[in-house]
Amino acid sequence: SIESDTVAWNSAISACGQVGEWERAIELMRGMEKARVAYSIRTHNAAITSCEKAGAWTVAVQLLDVVLSTGALEPTAVTFHAAISACEKG
């Protein structure tokens, strides 16, 4: 199902973040788009958290901007916390 595909991709993005591979997490997001798998707010949260852990604050802010500007996803406290934390670490 589409939902299980999204969960699998989100898990892979989260795993990248846990080992400091934020660039790979972003590549996986691009791969989701190419595979026509729908993003969820958890997708963005996982990618922003990956950037936060690596200190890639500019990319974290860009991802937050995508969430806020499209209006398609509802940001959560996790979304904002990860982006703010990335800025603190950057």
Topology:
Layout: H1 2-18, H2 22-34, H3 41-54, H4 57-70, H5 77-89
Q: Could you estimate the helical fraction of the residues in percent?
A: over 70%
Mean pLDDT across all amino acids: 93
- The rounded distance between the terminal residues' Cα atoms is 38 Å
Which ranges are low-confidence, i.e. pLDDT below 50, for 5 or more consecutive residues?
none
* Residues in β-strands, percent: under 5%
Structural description of this entry:
By secondary structure, this protein is mainly alpha-helical. It contains five helices and no strands. It has helices spanning 2-18, 22-34, 41-54, 57-70, 77-89. Helix 3 runs parallel beside helix 5. The protein is globular and about 35 Å long. The chain starts with a helix and ends with a helix.
Task: Tag the structure with descriptive keywords.
mainly alpha; 90 residues; 0% strand
Quickly describe the structure.
79% of the residues lie in helices and 0% in strands. By secondary structure, the protein is an all-alpha fold.
